[in-house]
Automatic annotation (TrEMBL):
InterPro entries assigned to the protein according to its UniProt record, in alphabetical order: DUF1684
Organism: Natronoglomus mannanivorans
Region annotation (Disordered) ranges: 26-57
Superkingdom of the source species: Archaea
Protein name per its UniProtKB record: DUF1684 domain-containing protein
């Protein structure tokens, strides 16, 4: 068994323990943003920083995703916030179902592509996305998830996709950063009220 972003994780978890671990991660991130020299919060703004904004933890947005591996991954150019272009490889497609308890929120089957930067050796999957909160309750440039997997994935594998771990890129907090923007194939036509919030 691996952690919330790894492969081979049972989707049925102790919700209280999961929530406590999530809240702990959020407190650690707040401390990093407030005090660390590499914080994206400009130094002149750190004294007034009192923590990031989040949606309440919601286990309905911690879902099992079925993996489709692309053996000959296609390059995908991604525009960046500085009007440059970065090239990633679309290495997997993740298929998942959303069925939130709140009947006012949309349910259904969805897909997101997972990428790796061209030429990179790391195994982490980069999953940038937009949803219907983008530009309203969350950062206008979209949000990111990074999925750490501890082995080579195969088509048909199941991994956990936890939108409660979705976060805003550093360029949301400082224009000194240059961040890739989610490509259109990762624009979800659904509200994802989970993870990091950001209101300008």
């Amino acid at each position: 068994m691996t952690d919330d972003t790894g492969a081979d994780v049972d989707i049925d978890v102790d919700v209280d323990r999961w929530r406590d671990e999530l809240e702990s991660k959020r407190r650690e991130k707040d401390e990093f943003f407030a005090d660390h020299p590499q914080s994206p919060i400009p130094p002149e703004d750190r004294e007034a920083f009192d923590g990031l904004e989040y949606f309440d933890p919601d286990p309905d947005y911690r879902v099992s995703a079925t993996v489709e591996v692309h053996d000959d991954p296609e390059p995908v150019p991604m525009e960046t916030t500085a009007d440059r272009e970065m090239r990633y490889l679309r290495v997997v497609t993740l298929s998942f179902e959303l069925d939130p308890a709140d009947e006012d929120l949309a349910s259904g089957e969805f897909e997101l592509a997972g990428y790796q930067q061209e030429g990179a050796r790391e195994q982490a999957l980069f999953v940038p996305f937009r949803d219907k909160t983008t530009g309203q309750q969350t950062y206008r440039g979209g949000r990111y998830m990074e999925l750490e997997v501890d082995r080579s994935l195969e088509t048909g594998d199941e991994i956990v996709l936890d939108f409660n771990l979705a976060y805003s890129p550093f360029c949301a907090y400082s224009e000194t950063f240059d961040c890739p923007l989610p490509p259109e194939e990762n624009w979800l036509e659904v509200v994802i009220p989970a993870g990091e919030r950001y209101e300008e």
